[in-house]
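Retry 2 of 3 after timeout on previous attempt. Resubmitting structure tokens to design endpoint.
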């Protein structure tokens, strides 16, 4: 009797866990929705190296118009060979992958930044770049 109760409990727990895992991976595939206002505070971590909309070059290239821009093409910035040859266009997807692990996505990148491990931070900063980096 007590064995079958435990067994049922375990099965119920297992089903709930599977449902939660499925929901989590579905959310991850779509990515969390970005909040541009929060993204502004995340961008504080980028601002020392990146101008947003004047076109100035700092440690890194200006991010003016970065969403929709081809990687490694901002005028007069000396990019790494890896970035110049990457051949992607920056959009929500490519930015998310780059910002997750810059050195993995662009081997040899000169961007000395470990990445944003939090998916919400990435979605937020990308939402901010969309509206503010113009
Ligand atoms: C320590 C300075 C530094 C920090 C901090 C930094 N970056 Fe960068 N970033 C760079 C440099 C340098 C490059 C050029 C990389 C290369 O040539 O490989 C770059 C390149 C980029 C590019 C590609 C631009 C292009 O023209 O193709 C994007 C997008 C970018 N950074 C976004 C960010 C974001 C968003 C953050 C904050 C979450 C950030 N960076 C933080 C220095 C930095």
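Retry 2 succeeded. Sequence:
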């Amino acid at each position: 009797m007590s064995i079958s109760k435990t067994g049922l409990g375990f099965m119920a727990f297992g089903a709930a866990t599977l449902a939660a895992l499925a929901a989590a991976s579905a959310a991850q595939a779509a990515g969390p929705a970005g909040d541009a206002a929060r993204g502004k505070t995340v961008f504080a971590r980028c601002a020392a190296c990146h101008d947003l909309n004047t076109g100035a070059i700092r440690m890194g290239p200006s991010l003016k118009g970065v969403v929709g821009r081809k990687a490694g093409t901002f005028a007069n910035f000396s990019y790494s060979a890896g970035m110049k040859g990457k051949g992607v266009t920056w959009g929500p997807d490519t930015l998310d992958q780059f910002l997750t692990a810059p050195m993995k996505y662009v081997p040899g990148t000169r961007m000395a930044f470990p990445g944003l491990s939090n998916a919400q931070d990435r979605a937020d900063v990308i939402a901010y770049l969309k509206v503010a980096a113009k």
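Attempt log closed. The first helix runs from residue 2 to 30.
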